[in-house]
């Protein structure tokens, strides 16, 4: 499947922000970036939104209506393995969190950003509408994440408002297969050789 990349790497952004998305796959082409907006409109890059430059779709001035699910689609309607949710807000606060799933065991930093300077202010962080901490600089790090850290996150900055919610996905670590134990033929085992040497020396 194609690999969908997003810049900036954040599931939320302010209106009028620049964003670019691309569908990449080694040695292959023909992937199209498509989206389904929160209003249910399905379209591809260049069809009323974005501008295709090579394999990159550029949206130089994102609007709230650009919020939705994005994915790569190949010839014949084959979809990429990952679709992503992007939220563009006209509000004054966003939560910067990874747009792609995070692997178990990795650290994740959440940043609560205000549109008006200073951007880094004391913030409260919530998971599934339950407060999980307050940070003086607006940054919270989740260490060694596991599947239990999956959920809907948002943040609030006093006097500025709150961010929209964003879902944080956590994927399992790839399973490592132990190397098979080599099988030594019985006739050539070290134990058999030493036993035969001992028996021959004792007989002489």
Strand content: 35-45%
Helix content: under 10%
Q: What distance lies between the first and last C-alpha atoms, to the nearest angstrom?
A: 70 Å
Low-confidence stretches: 188-204
Taking all Cα atoms into account, the compactness measure Rg is 27 Å
Strand tally: 19
How many structural domains are formed by the residues? 2
Which structural class matches the secondary elements? mainly beta
Largest sheet: 5 strands, mixed
Mind telling me the CATH superfamily name of the largest domain? Immunoglobulins
- The CATH class of the largest domain is Mainly Beta
Structure explained in plain terms:
The protein is mainly beta and 204 residues long. The chain folds into two domains: 1-90, Immunoglobulins (Immunoglobulin-like, Sandwich); 91-173, Immunoglobulin-like, CATH 2.60.40. It is 7% helix and 41% strand. It has one helix at 190-203; strands at 3-7, 12-14, 19-24, 32-37, 42-44, 51-53, 56-59, 68-73, 84-89, 93-96, 102-103, 108-114, 123-127, 130-135, 139-142, 151-157, 161-162, 166-168, 170-171. The strands form five sheets. It has a five-stranded mixed beta sheet with strand order 2-9-8-4-5, with no helix packed on it. Strands 13, 14, 16, 17 and 18 form a five-stranded antiparallel beta sheet that branches. It starts with a strand and ends with a helix. Residues 164-204 are annotated as: Disordered. Residues 1-89, 91-171 form the Ig-like domain. One of its GO terms (biological process) is immune response.
């Amino acid at each position: 499947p194609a690999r969908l990349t997003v810049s900036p790497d954040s599931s939320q952004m302010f209106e009028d922000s620049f964003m670019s998305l691309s569908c990449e796959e080694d040695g292959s082409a023909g992937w199209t970036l498509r989206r389904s907006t929160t209003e249910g409109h399905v379209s591809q890059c260049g069809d009323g939104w974005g501008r295709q430059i090579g394999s990159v779709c550029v949206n130089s001035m994102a609007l709230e209506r650009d919020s939705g699910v994005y994915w790569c689609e190949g010839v014949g309607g084959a979809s990429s393995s990952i679709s992503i949710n992007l939220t563009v807000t006209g509000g004054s606060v966003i939560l910067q969190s990874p747009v792609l799933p995070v692997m178990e065991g990795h650290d994740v930093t959440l940043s609560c950003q205000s549109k008006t300077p200073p951007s880094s202010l004391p913030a409260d962080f919530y998971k599934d509408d339950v407060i999980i901490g307050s940070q003086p600089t607006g940054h919270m790090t989740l260490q060694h994440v596991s599947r239990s850290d999956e959920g809907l996150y948002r943040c609030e900055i006093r006097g500025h408002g709150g961010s929209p919610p964003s879902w944080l996905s956590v994927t399992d670590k790839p399973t490592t297969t132990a190397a098979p134990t080599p099988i030594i033929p019985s006739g050539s085992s070290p134990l058999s050789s030493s036993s035969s040497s001992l028996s021959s020396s004792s007989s002489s």
